[in-house]
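Lab channel / #folding
Pinned by the channel admin:
"Please post every new chain as: sequence first, then the structure tokens as a reply. Keep commentary short and put observations after the output so the thread stays searchable."

First post following the new format, from NK:
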Amino acid sequence: MAFAIKRQERQFAMDTPSHPSITLSAEQHIENGVVYTDDVARQRAIAYDMLREFSAKRAAYYRDGSKINLKKLLGKDVIMFAARGVATAEEFVLEAFRACESSSEETVMGNLWQALIAAISSDTLDTGDMMTVRDGALYVCELKSQVNTTNSASFPQELRELKDKCETQRRFKRASNQQVLPAFCVLRHNKAIDEIRTYQPDERDQANRDIAGFQYRYLTGAAFWQWLTGFDSVEGLIDDVSRIEIGDVRQARQECIGRLQKEMRRALEENSLGDTMNDVQLLKQRLC
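Reply from TO:
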């Protein structure tokens, strides 16, 4: 069989894991038939520790009545849920809870990935903006979790902000004459893309003429992860989700849903309402 050395795309040819010719260095160990360096183990330890902290923060979020409560749920589009087939107040609580939870997690998880990548990547800093030195050049990175987190309307503004950040860094680096380059990075993508792109707005798009001709490096999926971390994906880094120490986040989440259901029942009763979606709509009009 062959033993792959992670992140280096090299292999040791051998017949069995116990082959007598195998000699590991002090920086290597075998795990499930794969030879890892201690650097990989260190990076993974950082990743699992940060995910443990994420779970603890989510548990705190679920228990904070100021962060998620009935009014937050009623702030969602009740009509949209009704049109989707949600029929009762209890169903609405579950669906609106998931919507609130998801929107909250997108921001938190995006910040976590950026901090994690900076922590395990050499010559990379997370100062609110992620910057990394590669081949002597300073790259200012705009980081997105996936392609659909940006759209045709918001994309030009994101490029404009990236261009401005690069110009700011060029002023700082003027004395050293270090090259400052922009990179637009997407963590999750089914294609590995690494290319230089040039933004050219439509001739009728006068609002974005100021960034016409702006060039930036576009990296997605495996190409991005290899560029910064040496892993081919987030799954390559987090290779065993059962290792994530979730603490009591599962219990906190269930307790939160139970609390919200009680808040809904109490509010409906206090307002002499039933449990249909029409009643939820009336409750929203009275409380929000």
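NK: The first helix runs from residue 38 to 63.
TO: also worth noting, Residues 1-30, 32-36 have pLDDT under 50 and may be disordered.
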